[in-house]
Predict the structure of Futalosine hydrolase.
Amino acid sequence: MMDKNKKQILIVTAVEAERDAIMKGLYRTENIHVIAGGVGPVSAAVNTTKALCTSKYDIVISMGIGGGFVGRAEVGSIVVANKIIAADLGAETAEGFSSLDELGFGSAQLKVNQDLATKIFESLHKTIPNVHLGPILTLSTVTGTAETAAKLTNRIKGATVEAMEGFGVATAAVKFDIPVLEIRTISNPVGPREREAWRMKEAFEGLTKTSTVLQEVFS
Ligand SMILES: O=C(O)c1cccc(C(=O)CC[C@H]2O[C@@H](n3cnc4c(=O)[nH]cnc43)[C@H](O)[C@@H]2O)c1
């Protein structure tokens, strides 16, 4: 039953395994609803919109595993976004990449709720040592070379994490005027493709720990 005194939270993951890891950390679920909205920004945006049309929410959180940029977010760490950036939304030109902002077609950056992001970062930091606050990039194509990783970090100041859904979830939330956040647990470094180096278990455990902290923050 809906508790009217508590904030209603929608968490959007990409896949069921992320959803399950988050559910595992929740001991009460009356005000936190978790859905798996699919991989990539389009599926994430459509499924977030569907959920927001169906029920009333006060906060939307894009959450799941992600790739950490070397020197910014190590494997096993947790990152709370201070910005959500669609890193491949723009045009390639002879002089390099031009973002949507530079092209004058809108913005490829969405603001998170800074007060909430800081509060969650500080709450996580009390029990978990390796937590960071930084920009989380959304890309439709997973980076697979050191060269692309370097291009992204040169182009986007402070780039901390790469994932595939945040900007889609955030675009839907912004259209409904609902504060948005993104939180990622790091399963792999951004760069050359090395599937066997992925630390899925640690990243899923990070999601479980994070959801327990979120429940305390929003209780
Ligand atoms: O097969 C591969 O080489 C491969 C490499 C990276 C990611 C995938 C996925 O299918 C995972 C997509 C899924 O996980 C998130 N995620 C995790 N790590 C990254 C990353 O380094 N870059 C982008 N997305 C990542 C993402 O949000 C998706 O939900 C396969």
User: Anything to note?
Assistant: Residues 200-217 form the longest helix (18 residues). The mean pLDDT is 95. The two ends are 15 Å apart (CA to CA). Residues 14, 39, 64-67, 142-143, 162-165, 187-188, 190, 193, 195 surround LNDFFVEH (CB under 6 Å).
